[in-house]
Specification:
The protein is mainly α. It has a domain at about 10-115 and about 165-200. The chain is about 60% helix and about 0% strand. The longest helix has about 35 residues, at about 30-65. It starts with 10 loop residues before the first helix and ends in a 6-residue tail after the last helix.
Amino acid sequence: MVDSDNTTTLPFVIGQQRDELERPEPQATDSALRLWSEWQRARYASLLLCRIQQRMEARMIANTGIQVLTAVERTPWQLPVSAAGLASNHLIACEAEVFAMTEALNVQDSVPDIAATSLIGVIAKLEMIVGADRDIGDPTDFPWPHIASVLRDLKAIAGDLPAGSRTRERTRSDVARHWKSAVKLVTALKEEGAAEYRGDLAVF
């Protein structure tokens, strides 16, 4: 049976983010700068979703003592209803974070295909490349510090990138889109797991 407690809404969480300011869209025709803005939005959404799932995990462990399980390990019949609801929402938040991060990585992967037409566009491309160092085993190894130093030099010569262009409405829309995709995925996993448990599907 599919757990119905998997549609937690997010505005109350996002509304608490104080580091987000309403700013106008950057006025630019450089495709690299527009790509950077898109990348920033995706990274910010993934950061918010990471915070949300961490809060849910802390609440789940504090209230129930349940250890976090992976999607493969967790099945609807293993937990009481209230605990299953907490675990389900935590799993949805984790999957939504993955969707957001995947979007950011896809934008990052398109950097080589975009030609910058200004120095600020070059800075935007380097900013995205340097941003990838979080996913590198050791960001202190060559060439990451060297690329970062080039980025600093360019900013000193040409100026920094424009201020972020996030708005609460857009951020909520981005997060809600990833949340909706995660709900669909988790619901499908639960339905498949329940069908296997009932013997409706062959287990190979």
